[in-house]
Specification:
The protein is mostly helical. It contains 17 helices and six strands. The protein has a four-stranded parallel beta sheet with strand order 3-4-5-6. The chain has a two-stranded antiparallel sheet with strand order 1-2. The longest helix is centred in the C-terminal third of the chain and has 29 residues, at about 425-455. It is globular and about 75 Å long. The relative contact order is 0.13.
Length: about 450
């Protein structure tokens, strides 16, 4: 049985086989499975809700044989590939948040579904990337660390080199979601921009832009906000993660609407790919919901906005040097990508390990040692097990030196490029302005079309 799920929360479905919903459009027929109800109720109040929705209801929303988002670019319609249900979800997803380290729970079944979707997406990318548009980016709080580099930056370069159209947002407005003082915001924006170019993001092939420089993007917020409810936003895993990371109990308006702003960031340019980490598939679901509801409510069923997909990064999560938390500047457990060789060695030597001299790769029981082995493996292209076997019983001191030297060798080219870029701020400003111009052109066109759909052209 198949059916299209309406713009209504699953919790609102009555306990019967079918239900009609009216939300300013024709009634929608929905097939409801009581067998799944208890599972949904069990997870509904937790952040795993959206992921479970994806795992349980994935096959019901899509037509077989189509990748959502990949066939909905307004000007290009790439060939479809086989689909095995829905997966994906939201943070400027694909937008790496430099501050937030809290992520929602992922169940094995939902992760498997997301991985299958991701595998299909990567097959599409490798066979024919035409029509694919990636939106990714960061909230600018300064230079990036090796967690960002291994977790997302390398993946962005890989997608760009594969032929995927690349859009990168420096989300400066999002800096004020959880802080009262901006500080040197221009410097904070310049730092990730420099890192992007240093690792290989090509400004001739990519559009790098800032939130505040694209007014029409932000003007999408009112129509998008009309498509969501307060309870949905309060339950959103991105909001919960940001609130927890900020250490606050009271939620500001910008924090509450954070996922909607992210949806505007993704949809204004009709982004249909938002790469995320393996622990982040819930983070783009709100964007998919908003795109779907806009198309149904305002666009008369036309698939104007794509529902973006989430190709999962194959890179493992890099923990901080404490071996317990993700890398975070606020926790002081980072190795910054821009660090010099001596400083990198000094930082790695302070990394937490254990007393066992025999080096083994055991992430569950020896996370600190496993983390260093992971960094070394990512830097050398070898496996953590292979490196552990080589070091053997020579202890953590040897492991730290091996890891620091491997990391320094791997980062030498982007560090050298970064040093060159830092000496040419005029070029960085030129890249930023060119990207903002392209982003404004796309946003103006999208906003005009949105106003036409809504009958607001005067």
């Amino acid at each position: 049985m198949t059916g299209r799920y309406p713009s209504t929360l699953v919790s609102e479905l009555p306990n019967r086989r079918t239900a009609d919903f009216r939300a300013g459009r024709r009634p929608v027929r929905v097939f409801y499975f009581p067998a799944a109800a208890s599972h949904l109720r069990a997870c509904f109040l937790g952040p795993a809700f959206w992921v479970n929705c994806l795992g349980i209801f994935a096959p019901l929303h899509r037509r077989a044989g189509a990748l959502p988002g990949l066939v909905r670019h307004p000007t290009i319609r790439p060939s479809s590939v086989a689909s095995e249900g829905r997966a994906g979800a939201d943070s400027m997803v694909g937008m790496t948040d430099i501050v937030a380290d809290v992520t929602p729970e992922i169940t094995p079944s939902s992760y498997d579904a997301a991985q299958r979707r991701s595998d299909a997406i990567w097959q599409k990318i490798e066979s024919d990337p035409s029509g694919l548009r990636m939106l990714t980016g960061d909230r600018p709080t300064g230079a990036l660390h090796i967690g960002h580099y291994f977790g997302s930056l390398r993946n962005r370069v890989r997608l760009q080199q594969a032929g995927v159209e690349t859009w990168v947002i420096v989300a400066d407005y999002q800096v004020i979601t959880d802080r009262e003082i901006l500080g040197d915001i221009q410097g904070s924006v310049r730092e990730p921009l420099t890192d992007y170019l240093a690792v290989g993001i090509d400004p001739e092939r990519a559009t790098i832009f800032t939130h505040s420089a694209v007014p029409a993007l932000n003007q999408l917020m009112p129509p998008f906000l009309s498509l969501v409810t307060q309870p949905e936003l309060e339950r959103n895993p991105t909001v919960k993660a940001e609130l927890a990371a900020a250490g606050k109990s009271a939620m500001g308006g910008l924090m509450l609407t954070y996922p909607v702003h992210q949806a505007a960031d993704i949809l204004f340019c009709h982004g249909n790919l938002v790469p995320v980490g393996k622990d982040q598939p819930p983070h783009i679901e709100q964007t998919r919901v908003i795109a779907r509801r806009f198309n149904e409510r305002y666009a008369g069923g036309e698939e104007y906005f794509p529902e973006p997909d989430a190709p999962l990064s194959e890179s493992p999560t890099i923990l901080g040097l404490d071996g317990e938390n993700k890398m975070s500047k606020s926790l002081g457990n980072t190795v910054m990508s821009r660090m010099g060789e001596a400083e990198t060695i000094k930082k790695i030597k302070k990394a937490k390990t254990d007393a066992d001299r025999q080096i083994t790769y055991d992430p569950e029981n020896r996370p600190e040692v496993a983390n260093l082995l992971t960094i070394a493996a990512q830097s050398t292209g070898r496996t953590p097990e292979d490196i552990a076997e080589e070091i053997g019983d020579r202890g953590a001191g040897t492991l730290k030196i091996f890891t620091a030297e491997a990391l320094n060798a791997h980062l030498a080219p982007p560090r050298a490029r970064r040093a060159e870029l830092e000496q040419d701020p005029g070029y960085l400003m030129q890249v930023s302005r060119a990207g903002n111009e392209r982003a404004n052109a796309a946003a103006d066109e999208t906003l005009q079309r949105v106003r036409e759909f809504m009958g607001m052209v005067y």
